[in-house]
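>> Question from a student workshop board

For tomorrow's exercise we were told to take the sequence and the ligand below, predict the bound structure, and bring the output to class. My setup keeps failing. Could a helper post the expected result so I can at least see what it should look like? The ligand is 3-iodo-tyrosine.
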Amino acid sequence: MSKTHPFIPYHPERFSESEMMHRAESFFQLMNKRRTVREFSDDPVPMELIRKLIMTASTAPSGANKQPWTFCIITNPELKQQIRLAAEKEEKRNYEERMSKRWLEDLEHLETDWQKAFLEEAPCLVAVFKRVYELEESEEKHNNYYVSESVGLATGLFIAAIHQAGLSSLTYTPSPMNFLSKLLKRPDNERPYLLIPIGYPAANAMIPDQPRISEEKVIFSYA
Ligand code: IYR
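>> Workshop helper replied:
Here is what the output should look like for this input. Compare the format with yours to find the bug.
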């Protein structure tokens, strides 16, 4: 097929059905062991590794291939402390004033509260920003497409890559989180999307004993 724009051939390896089933089972077994962690060890993590995990995240598909994401790596202890203080200020109001009774009840099993020690304890925080528009040379703002979907996909690949490498993460959404734009001095076309502490679980880390949703509830087949 002749194309106007540059195209290249694409021939990913094909496997037999049994090989595919085997690969899918192993990947499921691996991913099914991933759990969100809220108690981190302060053991350092290699920066080269974090950069590679981010570039894996950045292979995600995106609207019009705009790749509308920015990943900020924060290891500086003073900056981590500032982020913690700003996040806790908002969370205190969330827990004490802004969240509904129903919401607080829904969170009971996680035993979370407004205190966010993990923001200082984890050796590395990655702040994910979504780039809502591109600033063209003409100073015109061109909105990007399916920005939240795109950055969500990249974040999903990111947490999978983090787990596959042997580290743990927390997908944390302080609310509101515009303090991240200020503290990290991000431009106006970037909006904070998620804050992801990364590291090893603390020696005494505990996770809630929560089940995965069942196949029957997830999959509806229309053959
Ligand atoms: N952001 C708050 C509250 C919170 C909200 C949801 I939805 C969670 O799944 C977990 C926590 C906090 O992190 O404590």
